[in-house]
Amino acid sequence: MTLFTALFSHYRRHPLQLAALALMILVATTLWSGVRQLTEQARTSLAQSEQVMAGRQQVVRVDGAGLTVGDFAVLRRAGVCVMPWLEVPRPDAVGLVIGIDPLAAHCFAEEGAPFGTPGGSRPARLDGKPFVDIAEAARLARQLPAAETPPALVLIAADDTLAAALPSGYRLVSVSTGPDTGELGESFLLNLDALGILVLLITALLLRSVYRLGIVQRRDSFALLQRFGVPLARLRRLLILEILVLSALCIGPGLWAGGWLAQSIGQGFGQSLQGLFDAPLYASPGHWGEPALIMMTVVLLACLADFLVPVRRSHAPRLRSYPLAGGLLVTGLVLALLGPSLVLLFVAVAMVFAGVGLLAPLLIQWLAERAASMASDPLRRWRHRELAVMARQLALPVVALQFTLAMVLAVQALVTTFEDTFDRWLGQRLAAELYVPVPSGQPAEPAARWLAAQPGLQQGGAWHRVIRGRARVAVGDKAARPVDLLAFAPVSSLVSDWDFLATDGNPWEALARQDAVLVNEQLARRLGVGIGDRLALEIAGSPLALPVAGIYADYGRPAAEVLVSGALLPAGFEAEFESISITPGGLSREALVGGLKQVWQVPELTLRDNAEIRALAGGVFDQTFLLTRAMSILTLVLAAIALLIMGWVFFTGRAWYFRLLATWGLSRREVAAQLTRLSVGLTASVALLALPLGIWLTWVLVHRINPLAFGWSLPMAVYPGFWVELIGLSLLIGLGIALLMGRQLRAGAALPVSASSLTGGER
Amino acid sequence: MSQQVLEARELSKTFVSGGEPIAVFSGVSVALAAGQSLALVGRSGSGKSTLLNLLCGLERPDGGVISLLGERFDSREAEAPRQWTQRWARLRRGRIGVMFQEANLMPALSLLDNVRLRARLAEQPLEPCQSWLERLGIGELAERYPDQVSGGQRQRAALAMVFAMNPDLILADEPTGSLDRRTAEEVTAELFRLQAETGVALILATHDAELADQCQVTLDLAHGAADLTPGASAGPAP
Amino acid sequence: MRRTMLVLLWMVLAGCSQEPEQAGFAGLAESVAEGMAEGMAEGGGEGGQLFYLQPGPDTGLTLPEDLGTHPRHRIEWWYLTANLRTESGEPLGLQWTQFRQALLPREAGSIPEPATWPLEAAWMAHAAVSWNGKHVFAERLARGDVGNAGAAARPFSVWLDQWQLESVSEDQWRLQVQAENFSYDLTLTINDQPVAHGIDGFSAKSDSAQGSMYFSYVDIAISGTVTFEDQSLAVEGRGWFDREWSSQFLKTGQQGWDWFALHLDSGDKLMAFRLREEGNPFVSGTWIPAAGQARPLDSGQLALSVIEHREGVPVRWRIEVPAQGVNLELSAPPGNYRNQGLYPYWESPVDVSGSHTGEGYMELTGYR
C-alpha cells in the first residue's frame, strides 16, 4: 500500500465525505462559471455594440421596405461606402452572431479600425464570434424556424457618408443603439457578478467545512504516519496533490455544467438583456482556462488555507473577534446607507456579511451559554451547552446556511415585490382592450379622424394615439441629452388610472392643456428633475420649455422618457413607432378593423389584444430574475445538504454521549427528543439570525442597488409568509439531522477511543 | 440476611460473525445481595462487558432469566422489545449506576453539573451533589470541565455521579482501566469505601486480580463459557 | 502587385510556412472561407468536386469570352497602364487594375444566389495616378456574386463599386474611377488586335511549366479627364491593357518580380518580366514589332539588369534584346511610386532612352 492509498483510505471508509466534497466543487463551479459566462458574454456584447455601432448611421429605403443584397449592390455601385450587418440568433444556442462582409468593411478601415482590427489599414479578420462572415450568418438565418421573423439586413454607412451622395430612394438614419441607458447594463451585470461571488463564497465555506471535517478525522492517521517516519512536508504535499486531483476531476465537469446552465438560461437572459437594456447578447466563445484556474485557486484556498497561515489550534471563531466583527458590521451598515456607487454598496454588503458571519456563531454560542447558566435544570443546561458547542463546531456551514437563507429571502422579496408592482403597473398601462400599430408608411391622422367620428366609440369606448420617437432634454445649463419621447393624442381616459410617484394637481389635465410634460422615473433620477422643474425640450429641432407635472413609474426599461401631448409635436417630427390604443365600447371589433383597413387601404391589420401584450411583457420579466432565482435556490439546497452532512458527522462524533444518556436511563424516545431539540434549536437560530440579515439585504437591494442597477426603485415590501416557509425549511433541516442521528444511535455507538482525541469530546 | 438485589440464571449470549453464531458465554448465573461486591474477571473478549450490559439491560440475553430489584426479565417470555427496554431504562435511571472505563461525563458540563444531571435523572435531590464531589476529594474542582481535570479526577467525578443517584446496584466496567496504578488504587479505595458506607451492591468487571481480590466474590469468565461451573462460581456470600 | 498576389497564392498552395498575414486579401478571404467550410460541406459542396483548371501551351485564347471571368481558375486580372500627357504637355502616369480571386472553383454558368451572400470569389481593384512627382493610390475590395463587383465579356465590362471599365462601342471602352483624392474618366480606343504572349497566350512563369494565360492590347489611344488635387486635367496618350489568368504560378523561392511594358517611339512594343529567385532569375518577354508578328523572348534573347537603386527599389534598368538591336535604359521619374495598399508594391511610369526612345510602365514587387 502506497502512502497515497494509505491517506486516501479515509475516503474509502467515508465515501459520502468524498462525494460531498466533489459535489461542493462541482456545484460551486457550475453556478459560478455559468453566471460568469453569461455576464462575460453580455459584457463583451455591450462593448462590441458600443464600439462598432455607437454614433454610426445606416441607410434605409425611403419606401420603408426591407433591405436586400440588391440594395447593397446599388449603393456600392453608386459609390456609397456601406457594409452589410446581419444579426442572427445562433441555432440551439445563446446569443446572436453578426454577419458582416470583411471585404465590404474595407472602405471603413480608413476611418480608423472600427471593426476591431488594430492598425486600421487592413480589413477585419473574422477570428472569432460574434463576427462571422455574412454568408455564414445568411445560412444560419435560412435555418431559422419559419415562425421566426427573418433577421433584417442592416446597411451601415461610413461616418462621412452624406445624405446627398445617396441614390434616390434611400435615406440615412442614425443606427439606434437603443436609448441612453447610462451605466445600467453594466450595473445589472455587476449585480449578477456580486451574486456569483456570494455563491462562490458560500460554497467555499461549505467546501472548507466538509474538507476540514475530513482532516480532523484523519489527524490520528497523519500522526501515525508521522510516527512511521513520513515527514510532515511530504504529507502536506500529498494532501495538496489529493485536493488538486479532486478539484481537477470536478472542475472540468463543473465548467461543462456551467456552460450548460448558461446555455439553458442564456436565451432568456439574452431576452431580458435586450428587453431591459436594449443591449443585444452576441455569441462569444467561452473561455475555460481562466475560470478553471480561479476555481482551482478558490478550492485550494478554502481547503488548504491552514497550510498558508500559521496554524491555530482551534479554528472556531473566538470571542476576541468581536471588535473586528462589530467594526466590519457597523462600517458596512453605514456604507450601505451612504455609499454612492454600486461597487461601494457591494463592498458594504461584503463587510456586513463578513461581520455577521463572524458574529452569528458567536452570538448563538453566547446566547446558548447564557441560557445554560440561567437554567437550573441540569438536563436543560446540558442541552444549551451542547448547542453552544455545535454553534462553534459547525460555524462554517451554519454561516453558509445563514447567508443562503438571507440571500434567498432577499431575492424572493425583491422578485415578488417586482412582480406585484410590475403587474399593477402593467394593469394601468394596458388599460385599453386593443392595440393597433399604424402600418409603416401610413399616417395616423386619418385613422384618428375616423375614430373621432365613430359614435359607437363614444358609448363607453376610448382611444388615443401613442407616438414614440426621440427628443433632447436639457435641465438648467447642462448639455441636452437624447431621451425617448412618448406622446398621446388625445389624452384619453385610458390613462387616468396611472399611479404617479409624484404629481402636482392633475397631471393629465396639465398635459392635455399642453401646459406641462410628464417624465418617467428614470429621467427624473438621471437628470435630477422634480415636480415643477422646467425642462428645455428639443423635438425635431423645435425648442419647447415646459414644467414637469408628474413623475410616473416606468418599470423594466432603462431609458429616460418624456411624455408630452401629441398636439405639441412639430410638423417635422418623425415618429419611430405609432400605434393606437382603443377600447371599442359600442363599436364592434369587426367594424373597427374594417374601418381602419379602409382608412389605411391595407389588406391586413395587426391587432394585439391586451392579454397578448400582457403575456409578452410577463414573459420577458420572468426571464429577468430566472437566473437570480435559480442560483439562490440551488445554493440553498447545497447549504442545506452541507449542514445536514456536517450536523450528522458532528453528532456521530458525539454519539457516545447520547448513548450515555440512554445508559443513564433515558428512553430512546427521550434521547431522540433531546437530539431533535438540539438540531432544530441550531437550525432555527440560524434561520432567526438570517431574518434580519435577509431583511436588511432586501432593503439594500430594493432601495440602494436596484435604482443604481435598473434605474427605477420599487416599494420595499416584506413577506412574512415566506419567512415562515424558510424557518419551516430550517426546521426540516434540523429534523433531518435528528433523524439521521437517531438511526446512527440505533446502530450502536462506540466508546470514544480516547475522550480527548476526537472532536466528539470537545466542549 | 440482606436483601437480594440481583439474581441471574443461565444467561447466554451469542454473536453472529461472518454468518456463524459465536457463543460469548452460556449458562452463567449470578446472585448478589445489597452490600455485596462481585468481581467479574477474565481476559479481554471473554465477555465481561457483555455480561455487564446484560445485567443493566443495554443488551438482551439470548437465554436466561434476570431478576433485579423486584423486576423479572425472562428471555423466554415474548415481551415486546419496547416494554423490555423501558423497564430496564427505568431501573438504570434510578437504581443502577453504570460506570465505564472512561467518558462517563458530558464534556460540555462542569463536574458538578454532570453530578447534578445524573442526580436529576435519578430524581434525587440536587443539593448533596457538591458534597459528593467533596467526599471524593474533588470539591474544589466542581466548576471545572472534564477536559480540565486529570483522568483520576474524572473517574472520581464519575463515582460521585453514580453515588449521587443513590443506586441499589453499581455496575463498573474496568473503572480504573485507564488510570496509572497509584491513581487506580486511590479511586478503587474510594469506591469500596463508599460502597461500604452506602451498602450498595457492586459488580466490578476487571482484569486486575488485585482489584478482584478486594471483592467478596469473583466470577471468572477467563476460560469462556465452557469452563464455567454453574452455581459453584457465584452465589450468595457467606 | 498582381505578381505579389501570385507569389502569395503560390505560398498558400505550397503550404509554405510564411507569415500568414502575407496571404493578403486572398488569405483573408480564405480564412473566411475556412470558417464556412462546415456550412458548405452541408450544402453538398457543388464546387467541392471541381478542380481548378491549369492553363497550358495548348489551352489557347477565345475572344471575346476571355475578356470575361474564368471561374474555374484561381486568379485573374484586368490591368491598364497609361502614359498620358496633360494639355500643357506634362507627363501623367495612370494605372487601373482589377483582380478576381476564386475561393471555390465553379462552372462558368452556375451563379450562386446573391441573397446567400456567397463567398466564392473576392475582388480587389487598384487605381493610381502619378503626376508632377506625386503619386496617389486607392484600393477597393468586394465579394463576388452579390452584384457590386464582377466582370462580363459581352458587352465587356469590369466593375467594382463605382469604378468601372466598360465597352461603349465596338472599339471603344470607358474607364471611370472615383477615389477620395483623385478620379478619372477616360475613353480608350482599341487600335489593334490582342497580342498573345508566350505560346498561343500561355506565358511560362518558371522553367518547370508553371504559367498563366496572358494577352494584351498594346496600342490603345486614351483621352479624357483626370482630377487630381482638385485640378481637372484634360489628358491624352496611350495605354497598355493586360488580361491574365491562371490557377498556379510561381514556385517557392521566387521572391517577386519586375515587369515592364514599353511603347517605343519606333512603333515597336516590348513586354519583359523577370521572376527573381535563388540563382538565375526566370526571364521572359514579348517583342511586338510595329509591323508583323509578335515574338516571344526567352532568357537567351532578353537581358534585364539593374543600374541604380532608390531607397531599395531598382529605379534604373537596362534591357537588351540583341536580336532586335535593342539596348534600352529605363528610368523612373523622381518620386515615390509605391502603391501603399494592403500589400505595397512599386508601379511607376518609365522613360526609355538608349538604342530607342519611348515610354512605358514598370511594376516591381517584393522590395521592402
From TrEMBL, chain A:
Its main location: membrane. It comes from the Bacteria. Residues 195-305, 630-746 form the ABC3 transporter permease C-terminal domain. Pfam families: FtsX. It is a multi-pass membrane protein. GO terms for cellular component: plasma membrane. InterPro entries: ABC3_permease_C, Membrane_comp_ABC_pdt. It is found in: Cell membrane. Keywords: Cell membrane, Membrane, Transmembrane, Transmembrane helix. The chain crosses the membrane at residues 194-214, 235-256, 292-309, 321-338, 344-368, 389-415, 633-657, 678-702, 722-741. This is ABC transporter permease. It comes from Marinobacter profundi.
From TrEMBL, chain B:
One of its GO terms (molecular function) is ATP binding. The keyword Nucleotide-binding applies. Pfam families: ABC_tran. It comes from the Bacteria. Keywords: ATP-binding, Nucleotide-binding. Residues 6-237 form the ABC transporter domain. The keyword Nucleotidyltransferase does not apply. SUPFAM superfamilies: P-loop containing nucleoside triphosphate hydrolases. One of its GO terms (cellular component) is plasma membrane. This is ABC transporter. It comes from Marinobacter profundi.
From TrEMBL, chain C:
Pfam families: CrtC, Lipocalin_9. InterPro entries: AttH-like_dom_sf, AttH_dom. Residues 75-247 form the AttH domain. It comes from the Bacteria. Signal peptide: none annotated. This is Carotenoid 1,2-hydratase. The lineage of its organism: Bacteria, Pseudomonadati, Pseudomonadota, Gammaproteobacteria, Pseudomonadales.
